[in-house]
Specification:
Blueprint (H helix, E strand, L loop, with lengths): L6 E6 L3 H4 L10 H16 L4 E6 L11 H4 L26 E5 L10 H7 L4 E7 L1 H14 L3 E5 L3 E2 L3 H14 L2 E3 L1 H10 L4 H4 L10
Parallel strand pairs: 1-2, 1-4, 2-3, 4-5, 4-6, 5-7
Helix pairs in contact: 2-7, 5-6
Length: 208
């Protein structure tokens, strides 16, 4: 697949409900979270757009469709609860978009395609969780919508090591590039800064 020339960072679902050990949905995501912080540090230095996602539902779950029938834990992810908040260690900044989604892919039911197209993005550096769920689904859709999907191996995680490894293999074989974190960081450091993005002008990226 290779890297393009205009990247954005997409941090998928590193929310309290998935990173806090007191949550029944949590996994050991310390490694991916700190790898994501390294990605964010370098992206912010070069004014590369950053987008976060969370999953949240109405208390009635009327907007969750059939999903809770398969994944009962989704009932914890209620709008306004602490579980749907981004992990504070990510230190989301002004102008960094927060997508609120209902299903696995960050593209499904959101305006992500038009946001990226308006910002002329051609490459998504994708981090977060889970590798076999929302990360994989987003990578598949990224390819289908014409974006290069790059997954730094150390920056994604899952509850099951077997599902994690199988999904990385599947992604790298068919849908995007799984690369070492160091390779993604070298790419970000080589990207010229985008002054217009600092003030969030003309990029279609707004805070939510």
């Amino acid at each position: 697949m290779g890297f393009g020339s205009l990247p954005a960072i997409l941090v998928i679902d590193l929310i309290v409900g998935f990173t806090d050990s007191s949550s029944p949905l949590a996994a050991d995501l310390a490694g991916p979270l700190y790898a994501t912080l390294e990605v964010l540090e370098n992206a912010r230095l070069h004014s590369i757009p950053v987008i976060f996602s969370t999953v949240e539902y109405d208390p009635s779950l009327i907007d969750a469709g059939l999903f809770p029938r398969k994944a009962a834990g989704l009932k914890w992810l209620i709008a306004g609860s602490r579980w749907v908040e981004l992990d504070a260690r990510l230190q989301r900044r002004q102008g960094e978009l927060l997508l609120k989604k209902k299903y696995a892919s960050c593209f499904f039911g959101t305006d992500l395609v038009s946001i990226l197209a308006n910002a002329r993005v051609d490459t998504l550096i994708i981090t977060g969780c889970t590798t076999s769920g929302c990360v994989r689904a987003t990578v598949v859709d990224a390819l289908q919508y014409g974006f290069r999907a790059i997954v730094p191996r150390e920056a994604v995680g899952d509850r099951l090591a077997s599902a994690h490894e199988a999904s990385l293999l599947d992604i790298d074989m068919k849908y995007g590039d799984v690369v070492p974190l160091s390779e993604a960081i070298r790419y970000l450091k080589a990207i010229p800064s985008r002054p217009a993005a600092k003030k969030n002008k003309g990029r279609g990226l707004t805070s939510g």
